Amino acid sequence: MIRGRFAPSPTGELHLGHARTALLAWLQVRESGGQFILRLEDLDSGRVRSGSSDGILRDLAWLGLNWDEGWDIGGPHGPYRQSERQDLYEAAASKLETYPCTCSRLEVLQAVSAPHGVEVRYPGTCRSGVTHAHRKAALRWRVPDLEVHVMDGFNGEVKENVARVVGDITVRRNDGAWAYQLACVVDDADMGITDVVRGADLLSSTARQALLFDALGANRPRFWHAPLLTDANGARLAKRSGALSLRQMREGGADPKALLRDVALGLSWQINAPCQPQDLLGQWQIWLERIASQR
After folding, report:
1. Which of 95, 136, 159, 239 is catalytic?
2. Would you list the domain boundaries of the chain?
Protein backbone atom coordinates (compact mmCIF):
# COMPACT_ATOMS: atom_id res chain seq x y z
CA MET A 1 0.00 0.00 0.00
CA ILE A 2 1.16 3.53 -0.81
CA ARG A 3 1.97 5.53 2.31
CA GLY A 4 2.74 9.23 1.87
CA ARG A 5 3.21 12.06 4.30
CA PHE A 6 3.21 15.80 4.85
CA ALA A 7 5.76 16.85 7.44
CA PRO A 8 5.67 20.57 8.25
CA SER A 9 7.77 22.36 10.85
CA PRO A 10 5.90 24.37 13.53
CA THR A 11 8.21 27.35 13.11
CA GLY A 12 5.63 29.64 11.54
CA GLU A 13 2.44 29.66 9.54
CA LEU A 14 1.72 27.70 6.39
CA HIS A 15 1.49 29.59 3.09
CA LEU A 16 0.35 28.75 -0.43
CA GLY A 17 3.53 26.86 -1.19
CA HIS A 18 2.81 24.52 1.69
CA ALA A 19 -0.80 24.19 0.51
CA ARG A 20 0.37 23.04 -2.91
CA THR A 21 2.87 20.53 -1.50
CA ALA A 22 0.28 19.12 0.89
CA LEU A 23 -2.27 18.89 -1.92
CA LEU A 24 0.14 17.06 -4.23
CA ALA A 25 1.16 14.62 -1.51
CA TRP A 26 -2.49 14.02 -0.61
CA LEU A 27 -3.52 13.46 -4.25
CA GLN A 28 -0.67 11.05 -4.93
CA VAL A 29 -1.78 8.95 -1.95
CA ARG A 30 -5.54 9.20 -2.42
CA GLU A 31 -5.46 8.34 -6.13
CA SER A 32 -3.70 5.09 -5.25
CA GLY A 33 -5.99 4.25 -2.32
CA GLY A 34 -3.14 4.71 0.12
CA GLN A 35 -2.68 6.24 3.55
CA PHE A 36 -1.76 9.86 4.29
CA ILE A 37 0.29 10.65 7.39
CA LEU A 38 0.93 13.95 9.18
CA ARG A 39 4.26 14.27 10.99
CA LEU A 40 5.50 17.30 12.90
CA GLU A 41 9.18 18.11 12.40
CA ASP A 42 9.78 20.00 15.64
CA LEU A 43 13.37 19.06 16.46
CA ASP A 44 14.59 22.65 16.38
CA SER A 45 12.98 23.63 19.67
CA GLY A 46 14.46 27.12 19.57
CA ARG A 47 12.43 27.97 16.46
CA VAL A 48 9.15 26.29 17.40
CA ARG A 49 6.29 28.76 17.79
CA SER A 50 3.61 28.20 20.37
CA GLY A 51 0.29 27.25 18.79
CA SER A 52 1.82 26.61 15.37
CA SER A 53 1.03 22.88 15.34
CA ASP A 54 -2.65 23.55 16.09
CA GLY A 55 -2.69 26.19 13.37
CA ILE A 56 -1.32 23.69 10.86
CA LEU A 57 -4.17 21.29 11.63
CA ARG A 58 -6.76 24.04 11.23
CA ASP A 59 -5.27 25.19 7.92
CA LEU A 60 -5.19 21.70 6.41
CA ALA A 61 -8.74 20.93 7.54
CA TRP A 62 -9.87 24.29 6.14
CA LEU A 63 -8.43 23.27 2.77
CA GLY A 64 -10.45 20.05 2.90
CA LEU A 65 -7.50 17.68 3.34
CA ASN A 66 -7.78 14.68 5.62
CA TRP A 67 -5.29 12.19 7.02
CA ASP A 68 -5.17 8.69 8.43
CA GLU A 69 -2.46 9.10 11.07
CA GLY A 70 -1.02 12.14 12.77
CA TRP A 71 -0.02 13.90 15.95
CA ASP A 72 -3.64 14.83 16.63
CA ILE A 73 -5.29 11.44 16.06
CA GLY A 74 -2.43 9.03 16.70
CA GLY A 75 -1.87 5.81 14.82
CA PRO A 76 0.17 2.60 14.83
CA HIS A 77 3.46 4.32 13.97
CA GLY A 78 3.45 7.10 16.54
CA PRO A 79 4.48 9.26 18.12
CA TYR A 80 4.15 11.68 15.22
CA ARG A 81 6.13 14.53 16.76
CA GLN A 82 9.86 14.30 16.19
CA SER A 83 10.52 15.76 19.64
CA GLU A 84 8.99 12.57 21.08
CA ARG A 85 11.08 10.18 18.98
CA GLN A 86 14.56 10.84 20.39
CA ASP A 87 15.21 7.23 21.36
CA LEU A 88 14.69 6.09 17.76
CA TYR A 89 17.31 8.55 16.49
CA GLU A 90 19.74 7.44 19.19
CA ALA A 91 19.29 3.81 18.17
CA ALA A 92 19.77 4.62 14.48
CA ALA A 93 22.91 6.66 15.11
CA SER A 94 24.42 3.72 17.04
CA LYS A 95 24.27 1.69 13.80
CA LEU A 96 26.40 4.22 11.92
CA GLU A 97 30.14 4.77 12.03
CA THR A 98 30.29 8.19 13.66
CA TYR A 99 32.81 10.43 15.41
CA PRO A 100 32.67 13.62 17.52
CA CYS A 101 33.29 16.88 15.68
CA THR A 102 34.06 20.20 17.37
CA CYS A 103 34.69 22.28 14.25
CA SER A 104 32.82 25.57 14.01
CA ARG A 105 31.08 26.55 10.79
CA LEU A 106 33.59 29.37 10.36
CA GLU A 107 36.49 26.92 10.63
CA VAL A 108 34.93 24.71 7.99
CA LEU A 109 34.45 27.70 5.70
CA GLN A 110 38.04 28.78 6.21
CA ALA A 111 39.52 25.33 5.64
CA VAL A 112 41.74 25.17 2.57
CA SER A 113 40.04 22.02 1.29
CA ALA A 114 36.50 23.35 1.72
CA PRO A 115 35.18 24.78 -1.59
CA HIS A 116 33.17 27.98 -1.35
CA GLY A 117 30.34 27.09 -3.71
CA VAL A 118 26.68 26.31 -3.30
CA GLU A 119 27.59 23.52 -0.89
CA VAL A 120 30.30 23.62 1.74
CA ARG A 121 32.21 20.36 2.04
CA TYR A 122 33.32 19.29 5.48
CA PRO A 123 37.08 18.70 5.14
CA GLY A 124 37.28 15.86 7.68
CA THR A 125 39.23 17.81 10.30
CA CYS A 126 38.02 15.73 13.26
CA ARG A 127 38.07 12.36 11.46
CA SER A 128 41.39 11.46 13.06
CA GLY A 129 39.99 11.89 16.57
CA VAL A 130 41.74 15.19 17.29
CA THR A 131 39.09 17.61 18.65
CA HIS A 132 38.85 20.77 20.75
CA ALA A 133 38.45 19.39 24.26
CA HIS A 134 36.78 22.52 25.63
CA ARG A 135 33.98 22.58 23.04
CA LYS A 136 30.70 20.71 22.82
CA ALA A 137 30.86 18.12 20.08
CA ALA A 138 28.51 17.38 17.23
CA LEU A 139 28.29 13.85 15.84
CA ARG A 140 29.27 13.19 12.23
CA TRP A 141 28.72 10.10 10.12
CA ARG A 142 31.67 8.77 8.11
CA VAL A 143 30.05 8.87 4.69
CA PRO A 144 31.16 6.13 2.26
CA ASP A 145 32.92 7.31 -0.88
CA LEU A 146 30.52 6.15 -3.58
CA GLU A 147 28.09 7.60 -6.09
CA VAL A 148 24.42 7.42 -5.16
CA HIS A 149 21.75 7.06 -7.85
CA VAL A 150 18.14 8.03 -7.15
CA MET A 151 15.28 8.25 -9.65
CA ASP A 152 13.09 11.24 -8.85
CA GLY A 153 9.52 11.20 -10.14
CA PHE A 154 9.67 14.82 -11.33
CA ASN A 155 13.36 15.43 -12.03
CA GLY A 156 14.65 12.15 -13.41
CA GLU A 157 17.88 10.55 -12.24
CA VAL A 158 19.79 12.24 -9.42
CA LYS A 159 23.45 11.29 -9.02
CA GLU A 160 25.78 12.44 -6.27
CA ASN A 161 28.89 11.31 -4.46
CA VAL A 162 27.93 12.64 -1.05
CA ALA A 163 31.41 12.19 0.42
CA ARG A 164 32.91 14.41 -2.28
CA VAL A 165 30.14 17.01 -2.39
CA VAL A 166 29.43 17.65 1.30
CA GLY A 167 31.69 15.25 3.17
CA ASP A 168 30.74 13.62 6.45
CA ILE A 169 27.18 14.49 7.50
CA THR A 170 26.17 15.84 10.89
CA VAL A 171 23.64 13.51 12.52
CA ARG A 172 23.52 15.28 15.88
CA ARG A 173 24.28 18.95 16.43
CA ASN A 174 26.59 20.21 19.17
CA ASP A 175 23.55 21.41 21.14
CA GLY A 176 22.33 17.82 21.33
CA ALA A 177 19.53 18.15 18.77
CA TRP A 178 19.29 15.39 16.18
CA ALA A 179 19.85 16.59 12.63
CA TYR A 180 17.10 16.77 10.02
CA GLN A 181 18.71 14.30 7.62
CA LEU A 182 18.87 11.48 10.16
CA ALA A 183 15.51 12.16 11.81
CA CYS A 184 13.68 12.37 8.48
CA VAL A 185 15.10 9.06 7.27
CA VAL A 186 14.44 7.26 10.57
CA ASP A 187 10.85 8.51 10.64
CA ASP A 188 10.11 7.63 7.02
CA ALA A 189 11.55 4.15 7.54
CA ASP A 190 9.77 3.56 10.85
CA MET A 191 6.43 4.82 9.52
CA GLY A 192 6.63 2.72 6.36
CA ILE A 193 6.57 5.72 4.04
CA THR A 194 6.71 4.50 0.44
CA ASP A 195 6.47 7.84 -1.40
CA VAL A 196 7.87 11.25 -0.45
CA VAL A 197 6.31 14.21 -2.26
CA ARG A 198 7.92 17.51 -1.32
CA GLY A 199 9.32 20.73 -2.76
CA ALA A 200 12.29 20.94 -5.11
CA ASP A 201 14.20 22.90 -2.46
CA LEU A 202 14.85 19.54 -0.76
CA LEU A 203 16.13 17.81 -3.88
CA SER A 204 19.72 18.26 -2.67
CA SER A 205 18.89 16.13 0.40
CA THR A 206 17.79 13.16 -1.67
CA ALA A 207 21.11 11.39 -2.27
CA ARG A 208 22.15 11.93 1.36
CA GLN A 209 18.93 10.48 2.66
CA ALA A 210 19.06 7.58 0.20
CA LEU A 211 22.55 6.79 1.48
CA LEU A 212 21.27 6.85 5.06
CA PHE A 213 18.38 4.52 4.19
CA ASP A 214 20.92 2.09 2.74
CA ALA A 215 23.26 2.36 5.72
CA LEU A 216 20.42 1.68 8.16
CA GLY A 217 19.20 -1.30 6.15
CA ALA A 218 15.86 0.37 5.39
CA ASN A 219 13.90 0.50 2.14
CA ARG A 220 14.18 3.75 0.24
CA PRO A 221 10.89 5.49 -0.56
CA ARG A 222 10.19 6.86 -4.03
CA PHE A 223 10.91 10.58 -4.27
CA TRP A 224 8.94 13.31 -6.04
CA HIS A 225 10.33 16.86 -5.80
CA ALA A 226 7.78 19.27 -7.20
CA PRO A 227 8.66 22.68 -8.69
CA LEU A 228 8.33 25.44 -6.12
CA LEU A 229 5.49 27.91 -6.09
CA THR A 230 6.73 31.44 -6.80
CA ASP A 231 5.31 34.95 -6.59
CA ALA A 232 4.73 37.37 -9.48
CA ASN A 233 8.44 38.25 -9.49
CA GLY A 234 9.53 34.63 -9.67
CA ALA A 235 10.71 34.53 -6.05
CA ARG A 236 10.06 31.42 -4.00
CA LEU A 237 7.21 31.73 -1.50
CA ALA A 238 8.65 31.33 1.99
CA LYS A 239 7.94 32.21 5.60
CA ARG A 240 10.96 34.45 5.82
CA SER A 241 9.91 36.49 2.77
CA GLY A 242 6.57 37.40 4.31
CA ALA A 243 4.36 35.28 2.06
CA LEU A 244 0.69 35.63 2.99
CA SER A 245 -0.19 32.82 5.38
CA LEU A 246 -3.10 30.42 5.16
CA ARG A 247 -4.21 31.59 8.59
CA GLN A 248 -4.43 35.18 7.35
CA MET A 249 -6.46 34.03 4.37
CA ARG A 250 -8.68 31.82 6.50
CA GLU A 251 -9.34 34.46 9.14
CA GLY A 252 -9.81 37.06 6.42
CA GLY A 253 -12.76 35.14 5.00
CA ALA A 254 -11.07 33.65 1.93
CA ASP A 255 -12.88 30.81 0.17
CA PRO A 256 -10.72 27.66 0.44
CA LYS A 257 -12.36 26.21 -2.67
CA ALA A 258 -11.33 29.28 -4.67
CA LEU A 259 -7.83 29.03 -3.24
CA LEU A 260 -7.56 25.40 -4.34
CA ARG A 261 -8.75 26.38 -7.81
CA ASP A 262 -5.95 28.95 -7.97
CA VAL A 263 -3.40 26.40 -6.79
CA ALA A 264 -4.67 23.98 -9.45
CA LEU A 265 -4.38 26.65 -12.13
CA GLY A 266 -0.83 27.25 -10.92
CA LEU A 267 -0.18 23.60 -11.69
CA SER A 268 -1.60 24.10 -15.22
CA TRP A 269 -4.68 22.08 -14.39
CA GLN A 270 -7.67 23.47 -16.28
CA ILE A 271 -9.97 23.93 -13.29
CA ASN A 272 -12.30 26.84 -13.93
CA ALA A 273 -14.41 26.80 -10.77
CA PRO A 274 -13.82 26.66 -7.02
CA CYS A 275 -13.10 23.07 -6.02
CA GLN A 276 -12.44 20.70 -3.18
CA PRO A 277 -9.44 18.34 -3.04
CA GLN A 278 -11.52 15.36 -4.13
CA ASP A 279 -12.52 17.27 -7.29
CA LEU A 280 -8.86 17.09 -8.33
CA LEU A 281 -8.55 13.32 -8.04
CA GLY A 282 -7.39 12.00 -11.39
CA GLN A 283 -5.22 15.06 -12.08
CA TRP A 284 -2.01 13.77 -10.44
CA GLN A 285 -1.06 11.43 -13.26
CA ILE A 286 -1.88 14.09 -15.87
CA TRP A 287 0.38 16.59 -14.17
CA LEU A 288 3.14 14.02 -13.70
CA GLU A 289 3.11 13.24 -17.41
CA ARG A 290 3.20 16.96 -18.26
CA ILE A 291 6.20 17.53 -15.99
CA ALA A 292 7.99 14.50 -17.46
CA SER A 293 7.45 15.79 -20.99
CA GLN A 294 9.16 19.08 -20.08
CA ARG A 295 12.38 17.49 -18.81
Report:
1. 239
2. 3-83+192-293, 90-172
